[in-house]
Amino acid sequence: MDNLIRTILAEWKGKNIPVPIPREVNLLPYLNMKVNKIIVLNGFRRVGKTYILYWLVNELLKSNSREEVVHINFEDERIPLKTEFLSNLLPTAEELFNKKIKYLFLDEPHNIPNWSKWVRRTYDNKDMKIFISGSSSKMSEEEIPTELRGRFLEIRVFPLSFKEFLNFKKISPDLKTLEFSSDEKPIILKELTEYITYGGLPEVVLEDENKKLELAQSYYSTVIKKDIAERYKVKNEESLRALLRLLLDSKEYSISKTYNTLKSLGFEVGKSTVQKYLSYIENSYFMFSLPIFSYKIKDQIQYPKKIYFIDNVFINSISTKFTNNFGRLYENITAIELKRRGKECYYWKNAEKEEVDFVIKEGTKIKHLMQICYDVSDPDTKKREIRSLLKASKELKCDSLIIMSRDYSGEEDAEWFGIKRRVKFMPLWKWLLKDESK
Q: Where are the domains of the chain?
């Protein structure tokens, strides 16, 4: 074991560390916290967590030696899933380097037995900064092991925002005014179409267009195999794959309906298993769901949940129903951005099946009602979207009504059977680039 650790540490010492494109997640302020905390970067695989850590490593190496800044990737297939590896890691490193480690970076350590107890002991007994990355909700604030509670801060990492996407494409719009010339605006709309179509996973963004979907499909296979089937010891992988395909072709799900559909397709799987599979999928961060808005908890549990995926590229590369469906893609990218911004969201639907895509709640109040409509040029479509907003506005007592579309901007007074409100129309690109604090 010691020889393996020495080999991995020697490789680290000689490693040519990539110089990443900066992200909006800035870890530098966490170095100067008055109370030392373990920093956990959590999120879907391939969103760029390791490269965010590399960015900080490069900054630290400007004033520290390689022996004082150590990075270990636990997805290295040579590392055994044994607590012994962790127990021997620091003593071997200090003996080999003959220096005190100041900064310890751990990529995906959560598959090692008792990893959290070891991190707790290291945190309690060593004067060092610890940064950890993970791709499972088991490392989230809600599910972190008891021994680490109160000792860590979670930073959720998402695929590239549209601002970051443009930065990766070396495009720097004026984010203060968000006003573009007749030459600049077509460029922004073209890039938005690519962002909506292929998403914001960094490697996919940087890949050639003819290989983007192929790369996304390989990610999808890895998620099924490593992050779900292997991690949760799923025996019936065929049913799991069928469930994922159903979800990717759906806008909402309920346990009963999903169970019945799988059963009709010949898959022998029980309701409790379907429920477990759904939790596994959400735990991998591949999918998230929104409940219906209701003051009754019973309604939130019983009504179907709306489905969203961590990146649009999976809808375009795997789904057979929503490929190049820009209405669906606009809605999914909005859901991701709302989650990135930490918003508490629901959807609204009445007895007539009229629907509002996003009910955004702050504290005890409904702050915004948001409708996504790719093209509002059709009068009937526009009328339908406004009618749903007005009805929800009356029921939920919210006057901030927003319709986001491809490129229509303005405000209009609207009325429906005595309900009068002002509706704000905003291009999706402008909302994605807008500074939320303004």
A: 2-156
Residues 6 or more apart from 1 whose CB is under 8 A from it?
Answer: 80, 82, 84, 85, 88
Entry pTM: 0.94
Residue 356 CB neighbours (<10 A): 26
Closest Cα partner for 45 from 135, 141, 165, 168? Answer: 135
Query: Dihedral of CA 259/263/265/268: which sign?
Result: positive
pLDDT average per 10 residues of sequence, the chain (438 residues):
92 94 95 92 95 97 95 94 95 92 94 92 94 84 81 94 95 81 86 97 96 96 93 94 96 95 94 96 95 87 94 95 90 98 96 96 96 93 95 95 94 90 96 78
The closest of 202, 158, 193 to 336, measured between CA atoms, is 158
Q: Are 291 and 305 in contact (CB under 8 A)?
A: yes
Q: Contact, 234 vs 224, CB < 8 A? A: no
CATH for 2-156 (3.20.20.370, 2.60.40.790, 3.40.50.970, 3.40.50.300): 3.40.50.300
Q: Which residue has the tokens 């009963």?
A: 256
Is residue 241 left, alpha or beta, with left meaning phi > 0 and alpha meaning psi from -120 to 50? alpha
Where does residue 160 rank: exposed (0-12), middle (13-18), buried (19+ CB within 10 A)? buried
Task: Decide: helix, strand or coil at residue 282.
Answer: helix
Q: What stretches of 66-216 adopt beta strand conformation (E)?
A: 69-73, 103-107, 129-134, 152-156
Tokens of 248: 């990717």
